[in-house]
Design goal:
single chain; alpha/beta; Aspartate Aminotransferase, domain 1; Aspartate Aminotransferase, domain 2; 2 domains; 3-stranded antiparallel beta sheet; 14 helices; 12 strands; 14% strand; globular
Length: 379
Amino acid sequence: MSHLQSALIQRLAQREMEGASRYLKSDQRGLVDFTSNDYLGLAQSEDLFQNIEKQIHTHSLKLNGATGSRLLSGNSDHAEEIEKKLAHIFKSESTLLFNSGYTANLSVLSSLPQRGDTILYDELAHACMKDGARLSLAKRFNFRHNDLNDLESKLKLATGKIFIAVESIYSMDGDQCPLQELVKLSEKYGAFIILDEAHSTGVLGPAGAGLAVSLGLQDKIDVRIYTFGKGMGIHGACVAGSSTLRDYLINFARPFIYTTALPPHSIASIDCAFDFLDQNIHLQKVLDKKVKHFLHTLNHVGESSHSNSSIQSIQIGGNEKTKNLALALQQKGFDVRPILSPTVPKGTERLRICLHTFNTDKEISRLIQSLQALKSSLG
């Protein structure tokens, strides 16, 4: 056995001992979905599926792949048309497509801040924001989650250009960024906001344009990242901002420059998904009603939540206890997954419950009742 193999086995054994090993899960069909990010049900929409197939046939999009990066053979008139369409939806001067929200965030955080600049990121920001900041030559510091006082104390010490990296809706607990107050604070210190709209795309705002547009703050935020693999039910992402920002990313964002572009099918999917949402915007209200029913039922059994979004979090504590509770819920027919350390800090392990337009009120009520009963029995 090689030294490398031995080292890998040792690290895996350590993670197993901590109860934090990760495994690929088999298909959970037959269980009630309370875990996917398909908040509006678009990923399983037969109508949207047929619309995408029709557009591919109508536009004769017969290539299986993009064949290269956007800077080589992978660009197309269709991609640029969709970018203009997205700019209109997101009320920005320009947009640039990316293969995923991860690579979009990685591109922005690694290329915009320079040596001597400062990145301040919310401690609960997604891993892709932290990874992008790590690749940057700028100094980087976190601030306590949604704590504007802590942020301001660090703004006073920041040097160079200052970038504040936050999410609209946080992926683990589903709570919302205090965006209006954050904008005022950024203006006071001349800082630039980088806003990840991943979990608000499709779910909030006119035409699914996210939190910033819903609050009329789009012109106050320099960089917005939108992800299509969650509420929009498809794949891909884009960065919205100025035309200068677009040109800059094309020239300096390495994950964009050196990555094969999205295939024609993905471009058509983005086009059709936003058309479909425009025609079915009532789905936002349907989802809101599901969230309110969940919160009302949760309150009825003496529990509370800090989230008003489709992402709900029930903190349990301890990897084994959290895993056992999730498994017990799965055995009762609910697809609920545990979020374990090191994904979240030790002691804050939790169940992440995602609500969808297709979850019935009865299913939501049964989930909460089962959860309460199991928590009592498992201690």
